[in-house]
Amino acid sequence: MMQQVNRMPAIDSIPDDRTPAVARHGAIHCCQSGLDESSLRLSGALAGPLCEAITNASTAVPELASVELLVLTGERTATLVVHGSQTAQHNTGWLADGAGEAGSGRTAGGDELAALLQRRLPDWYGIERGTLVLDLIGIAAAPTSRLVYTDEPPSGSALESLFREIVARNHKHNIPTVGQLLVQRESTDRFRVTARVADIGRAERPLGRHGLAASLDASPSCPIDRTTPDGITSSRRLADDYWERNVPHSSRFPGLMTSPGTTNALAALMSLGFRDSTHEYAALLQGRPAADPYEPFPVDPTLALSTAELEAILDVTPHYETCRWPAKPTRFAPRFIRETVRTQAAGTDHEELLRGPHPAMTELGVQTGGSLRAFTGGWLEETGYHAETLDERSRGDPHFRGHPNDDADDGPVVLVDPNGESSDQVVGTAGELIMAANRALREGSHLLVVTPSRETAQWARDVLEVPYASRRTRDVQQVYSIPAFVYTGDGDIVVTERESQPLYWTVSDGQRSLYAGDRCLASGPVTAPLSSYTFETPRLTKRGDSMIVLNDDRSVRERRPSLAACATDYRAVRRPVLPIQPLFCTDVTVAYRAGSSLVEPIRSQRWDDGRTLESRRRHYKRALETFLETYTVGVSAQSSRTAPRFFERFLTWYDGRITWPVPTRDRLSRALPNWVHARTDTREPVVLENRSWWLPVADLPLAIAHGRSSDASAHHDRSATE
Fold this sequence. Notes:
The protein is α+β, with helices and mostly antiparallel strands and about 725 residues long. Helix content is about 25%, strand content about 25%. Helix 1 (about 45-60) packs antiparallel against helix 2 (about 110-120) and helix 1 (about 45-60) crosses helix 9.
């Protein structure tokens, strides 16, 4: 059974501000010589001494289950850290999971490894022990490639200098890097090796359906895939065998679809988990092989090597290529807490290779705080987006600006949780979520919606895809509202008696109406402000220090000392919110927090049984019927209303919930149900003559759509009395 993608866990609180979350206690830092004095630099390969030290330690220390080699980009160049573990996991920080004791209790063979490395490496090398702190490189996934092979196991000559070339190539392009080799002995002369490379200095991790689809057009620049011979590739390239993007370049929907002939749907979905690096980056931080998810793939994720082949891949030091970190880094070089300096490197200041402790080293890169806002801000920063935080916001405003799926890098990010506390300052109602979508659409921006759970993400997606609350009758929709006051043209607050029937707003035939049960209390064109409506309800107005309750003819009903005193017998009418288009599918990503990651599930829905030759045709037909029943209403033969851009909107809706190829418009025209009257037009391939959108309004001003008296209304965000 295929396992799920591994993720770094969520962080609600930390044990203290000094203990690292991701660390290697008892690590051995191998300091190359000649960093400051070039005459002391070493040019020969050191794979042999490294291999001898590791194999001898594996023999001498029975509890040494795994040896990890980390090639780390420091603030000047790369350096090497070696760590031994008594389990298959190397993380000794408090975010470690799986079997074994966190902290130094998991470390094994440290003294023996240090002594062997000191003895086998050249005398000019420095050897020191301590704790490697990796919190600073961040726990949000960075682009991470795992070496996998598709044919026969690679030979020693194919592996020789492989990691050296990868690091050197990345440094040539100023890409800070973490390279990892996990070595586990199987027998006297056989080892299993896991090889990974993380590009810490890149912000190329795709997010959700839009990001993954875009990555198919521009294949990820994997350091492993660039430098390896035939038969060896990167885990991030596996999705190329299962997915395609086949939409017109003018289209704005993702167009993510499985390639023809793809039969293993689970493997296809899992390959996307490798594409966005979530699994491999978490495995790198935890320091474990994590090969189970590769079972359904025709690749081997682990190298089975002889001692000679192991030596070939261990050519990882020394490195003298320089590398500059970004001018505004969001991830930082690891730090090293030195405990024992066994030998000093010749011509090298150890601090120049791997800096010592920093007061904030266990805070940088760790998404502290349990709130959705703190997590999202940390995730955006670690992902490489210096998002603007908006502390002062009105209803429908974003919480951040700047995320991976917006071309201008300033797209709105809204935090949504209908179960959240008001103090969390998150979007808690469907009406406010529609306001945020309206504003993003009007700006021409891609909206990122962040939610705390998969269930909440589904709720938000449902609201955006069907932006009305319910269908009261065949042609009447009940719309969402927000807890804000509705004002008359005189500035009075519209209220009803608390004993009255439940209130709701509807839209039908271009009219917006307020109902209490079956009784209509107000109605007017959706294009007109609410202040122009005539309300058959009481209203409140302030006179002096008192609140006056007025009848609908503005005669005085009674006087109350305060607004709160009115709430005992009256309730405010909530303000309705209208979407400015029939549905929101294009340029929207709805993601939820899963551990330390953001996830947007890839949906694949079918509208047929899939067992007959006619299934594809019935699939299209039923999809069209579902769309027509949800988003259009019938109109009379005399009406001039239609459903413009029908197929365009259908395709965006269809594309977001399917992984089949997008059908042609000719095929869709033939699949239209008989009860739809259609004709061709020079401007529109198909015009529906007897159907219109459920809300047939184009270019509706946001002030009208959001129920304000005007854009400049001074009281537009005051809360309604409950």
